[in-house]
Each structure stands twice: as structure tokens, then as C-alpha cells.
Amino acid sequence: MNLKNLKKIITKTALSLALALTISFTVPMASLQAEAAYYSVTPISAVLLSCNGTEVFADADTTTFVKTLAVNTPVQVTGQTSNGFWQVSLDGGIYYISQQALSAAANTTAVRFTSYDVNAALVANAASGKIIYSQGANDKLEPASTTKIMTALLVMEAIEAGQLTLDTPVLTSATAVASLPSDASHVEPRLQAGEILTVDQLLTAMMVSSDCQACNILAEAVAGSVSNFVALMNARATQLGCVNTNFTNPSGYPDKNMYTNAYSLYLITANAYAHPLFKQYFGMASAVLPATNMCAVPRTLVNTDALVIPGSAYYNPYVVGGKTGTANRAGQCLVTVASREGKTIITVVLGGKNRTMYDGTVKSSRYYETNRLIELGFANYW
Fold first, then answer.
1. Measuring CA to CA, how many Å separate 329 from each of 72, 107, 143, 275?
2. 64, 106, 194, 219 - which has most CB atoms within 10 Å?
């Protein structure tokens, strides 16, 4: 069959199967699991394209995984099951593919059921430390602004040691702000040399709006210089059992020499979350910084984590806190703590992306996959 005819078939199929292709993106994994006796098959003849991550199953059940197809592979559809699968003909046999994993359009992304659409993923029992699921958890990756969790941990420990208080005023030095480019500031108006803020205000700016300048200012307050603080970060990481980890700045601003992994970020977060004061900043959806000696107007901050923002498409009421990170090489990163019915879990995703899905919608894989990990963690809590 030539490409022109294939496109005609795909277009015709897309129209005739429009209803089928509008199946909700948020169908949970369990809804696609069924014993053979409980589904029926309606015969259909069509050709659709595989998506990025299309999974093939031996039966209409996600526990019968066989393989993953290469993207844009033409697939002959022979039927539609009553429980959310396409019946397909592949390699001379009959197999099944989720109706959320084939498309009439090229270069789309499938909903996955046996893996996660990120470079690394982990979910752990926060109380026991048991790892419930991991994927690439020890792979060396850039952490982006999830680095700020380590910075917050060291500030919390300095406060508990009596070195600082939340009300301690801190003078913003020229070196703290000059070493960072303009895109590292997420506070408007941005912090200025000579401006005085309290430790509380700096922690708020760092954890809510992910301001990188606030990290440098706190680093100097704790250790005298950013370089001294970075040395503390790496020493503390070693003490916590982190591996393949090297911090080069306190904010996570992109640096090829800075790296860690999902498991090490879990260890850092678990230790930070053990500090009651950390929780105060970790879960803030928004905040207001009052006027200072160099800024006459209050600054409004909004959390960069869509999971904690009511009304967001990804909002999850069980999430009690999280820290995002985004950079070109690092991709979309997110560390989250969620709690439900006495169960508390920590999730980590690194290297997510915005994806055009099988149905044409665009999804952020860090948020979508984190919500999947949260459900997996609660369902398999031990």
C-alpha cells in the first residue's frame, strides 16, 4: 500500500472512529484489565499508526504485555473490544493495543501502562523507606530546580542549630545576584543587591516561585559564600547515602557538571520532609512577600507545581507538597509528597516533556506520570 492510500485510510478511519478516539485520557490502568470472558469484540477494519510508547498485549489485559512498537508503525486494526482495546493483526497473529495508544496522526504519544513516559521515576513509602516502584532510578541525570530541596534541608538544619531564625534579616549581596542571569529570577520585581529580606521570605521565594537568587542569598547566610554552601551540599548528600550526585550550585541552575538521580532525590526529600518546618514551605500554593527597603510593593508568588494548584488540570488533592524543576537538558522534573488515609508516599520524576497525545491533546508528562505514580504508590503501599 502506498503512502497516499495509507493517508486516505487513516483519515477515513479517524472520522469513522472519532467517538472511540475520544476515550478519556485519565482512564486508570485498572479499567483496562479484564478477564477474556468479560469483554466482547466488534469487528472493524482500519489502519492506524502506533504512537511513541505504544504497548502490545497478548490479550485485552494490561498484565499480558508483549512488546513496544516503534513510533509511526502502521497497524491493521481488526476489532474494538468493549473494555478499551483495539484488536490488531501483527506478525501473523492477533494482539491487543489500548485505544489510547493508536492514532490517525503521526508522531503522537501513547498512554502507557507498563512504564512511565519520563527518563526516571520512583515512588516510595515515606514511613518505611520501601521502594514501591522504580524506573531508571539510579541513572545520572540533571536535577534542575529539584536541587532546591537540598538547599532547603541545609537551611532548616541551620535554623535548628540556632545559626539562623526565620526572622533573621539577610542583606542581599552583589555577588549573590550578579552570578545569575536574568532568567534565574522568578520573583517580580527581581531581588536586588542591598535589599533586606528575612530567612522566612527567602525560603518562601525559593520554594514557592523557585527563585534562584534567593538560593544564593540563603547560601551566603548559612555558609558565608555560595562555594562553601555547595561543599556542604555535597557533604550532606554523601552522609545521606546519595550516589552519582554532584551539586555545583544551590539553585539547580543548569550546569553539565551537576547531576544526581531519582533515588538520591528521594533520600534528600525524605530527610527534608522529616523537618516540620520544611513542610510549611513545601506545600504553599501561593504567597505574598511584603514590601522591603528596596521594593515598595508586595510581591505575589504562585507555586510552579500544578499538582497543588486548585483548578489545574493536574490538581491532586492528596499532594501535600512538591518541587518542580525545568531546564532544556534536564527536561521536566518533579518531586512530590502525597498522603491519603494514613499512607504517605514520595514520588520523583526526571526528564519529562510536553507530549502531543494520541488524541491530539497536549499533556505534561511530569504531572500526568506523577499522578499515575501516586495512585500506584497508594494501591501498592507496604
1. 25, 21, 10, 31
2. 219
